[in-house]
User: Which sequence fits this backbone?
């Protein structure tokens, strides 16, 4: 953790269309372009098989950990703006996408608001979120669910490969 003000947040990024790595890098830059979100950690990149949905290409996934002074709804809006900047189209549930940005954790907030459920309701089941998150924050805890290390051990790492040849960099 840092001494930065605000709430600790975890954002999961994924891309499986176009230049996936460039899109993830651009998504990181877009998220951090405006004040209100300060990067504290950026995970390694993982290549993962799609979960659910139609047949589609494999994803690149990463996790961004930050401090934010934005309220939850404004953070969600920032994530959606980043998706729109990369022409995200929402035509099919769990379908392919240029960029997907999910708010996984916002501090210790637990909410069943249908617009922004926190923590993310399926994070505990998704190795493509848990594995990069654990790399970026080894002591991570999912509010109300437990240690990320234990959750990842329970779901396993099948279909999730760390790509040390691919790297995301903090914006300069």
Assistant:
């Amino acid at each position: 953790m840092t001494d930065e003000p605000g709430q600790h947040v975890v954002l999961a990024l994924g891309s499986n269309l176009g230049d996936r790595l460039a899109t993830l890098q651009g998504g990181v830059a877009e998220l951090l372009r405006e004040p209100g979100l300060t990067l504290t950690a950026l995970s390694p990149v993982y290549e993962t098989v799609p979960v659910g949905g139609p047949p589609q290409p494999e994803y690149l996934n990463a996790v961004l950990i930050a401090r934010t002074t934005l309220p939850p709804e404004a953070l969600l809006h920032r994530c959606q703006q980043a998706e729109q900047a990369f022409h995200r189209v929402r035509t099919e549930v769990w379908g392919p996408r240029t960029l997907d940005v999910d708010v996984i954790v916002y501090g210790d907030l637990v909410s069943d608001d249908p617009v922004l459920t926190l923590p993310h309701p399926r994070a505990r089941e998704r190795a493509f979120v848990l594995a990069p998150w654990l790399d970026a924050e080894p002591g991570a805890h999912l509010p109300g669910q437990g240690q990320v290390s234990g959750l990842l051990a329970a779901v396993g790492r099948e279909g999730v490969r760390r790509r040390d040849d691919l790297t995301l960099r903090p914006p300069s």
Remarks:
- The longest helix spans residues 72-85.
- The chain has a mean pLDDT of 93.
